[in-house]
Design goal:
2 copies of one chain form a homodimer. Helix content of chain A is 64%, strand content 0%. By secondary structure, chain A is mainly α.
Chain lengths: 222, 222
DNA sequence: GGATAATACGAGCGATCGCTCGTATTATGT
DNA sequence: ACATAATACGAGCGATCGCTCGTATTATCC
């Protein structure tokens, strides 16, 4: 058993008819993930939900994992579209306003099919082919790092890689956790406060003006 | 199938012999999770690994989920012990030093059986009984909030709930992501830098001295 | 319109899973 | 010592899973 970890379609869908079949399968996978959860998403069930025979499913996907990968990639494409737009829009703006816009966009991005997002985040094992799909994070990282690079003069002297890592990770975690576990801070009245706080967090971190504090106890760990 | 979601042992282990059996099962579950991953951890396999019959397993655990819950709870107890100690030690110290210690401890905590931590984070579905086990996070939240409360005078005026949420979420994410995806920033030379940056992040956020910026565009979202 | 390629179908095999239940073994109390 | 309770055992049932393969249908090309 085990160990067949193919991810790409076995067959390229060339005719119109088959492209529809593939779409129906990906669509059905997403629906089932949301409605029934990851474990209950068997290939048989997916084929049935899609109105497609199990044989046809295996003509285009080598297994459940490949279907989930397809769903994730589609979801990520949609999310990154929002993020990219935000960074482009932020380009000309001063640091704080830019950060604010990007953070607001991060929240907005997490609202693209949040139920699917939840299933993918909470139930989908990051194993096999699924683990590499986190190219998503590194794309966000590159995007933000590029912004920092172009606005280096507004920043304190800092390793851009590290700074981008700190900012992206924090923003991601804040919006992610808020969406999944803190719906109350996302009410129309409260969401502004959250954006304010997150903005203060990263701007205070990036700004040169921050009070330079004695980096004493460096060897506290290890 | 489905829907039996018991979590607590069916039988309390009263004699010494049975307590050993339960321990062996939990221990075996952790080993298998690490070695083979979540999906391959079947009850049959766990029983075999523990050197215990499948019948005995079901005398004490209603299913796989309960076993995993037991493993998670044990792991969380170990981690929170580190965190609690750090907060206690931070009590008398000024904000920055305290934050530094807590962050260093957060990294240290993530080093308690990191391979198990990875499996639990990446493969274990947060579903059924597993979702409530995230009481872990809320415990960390309470702990940190209590510290903030006792040091309110060193802070800018801020909603403590919100501030604790922002700090805990960020620190958690930074250490978590670093341990799981950025081993290079945890080398003995680099880890100090990471602690420095994380400290600057939260201290700059909590300090009153931070340059108060005009909270303009509040309605950027929605 | 006939040949060939592309696509769709679904019964069903073999493997694994979670779990029960009847039985055997060991500890406890008197 | 014996009776009773606690614990341990594991064969095997029923359900589900992933997946193949022989066949039927539909599109494409000349």
């Amino acid at each position: 058993m085990a160990a067949r970890a193919l991810t790409s379609p076995r067959k390229r869908a060339s005719q119109e008819r088959s492209r529809a079949t593939v779409d129906a399968l990906v669509e059905a996978t997403a629906r089932i993930l949301v409605r029934d959860g990851f474990d209950r998403a068997s290939t048989n069930r997916i084929a049935q939900e899609a109105g497609v025979s199990i044989g046809s499913l295996y003509q285009y996907f080598p297994g459940k994992e490949a279907l989930v990968v397809a769903v994730i990639e589609r979801h990520n494409r949609e999310i990154m579209q929002v993020a990219r737009a935000a960074v482009v829009e932020a380009e000309g703006l001063p640091l704080e306003v830019a950060a604010r816009g990007i953070i607001a966009a991060a929240i907005e991005a997490h609202r693209v099919d949040p139920r699917l997002h939840r299933v993918l985040a909470e139930q989908t094992p990051r194993t096999g082919a699924l683990e590499s799909v986190e190219a998503f994070n590194s794309e966000a990282f590159r995007l933000f790092r590029a912004y920092l690079e172009r606005h280096r003069d507004e920043l304190r002297h800092v390793d851009l890689d590290l700074a981008a890592f700190v900012c992206v990770t924090s923003i991601e975690a804040l919006t992610h956790t808020a969406v999944l576990h803190r719906p109350e801070v996302l009410s129309d009245e409260a969401v502004g406060t959250l954006v304010d706080e997150a903005t203060r967090l990263v701007v205070g971190y990036l700004r040169p003006s921050a009070p330079v504090t004695t980096p004493t106890s460096v060897a506290l760990i290890r």
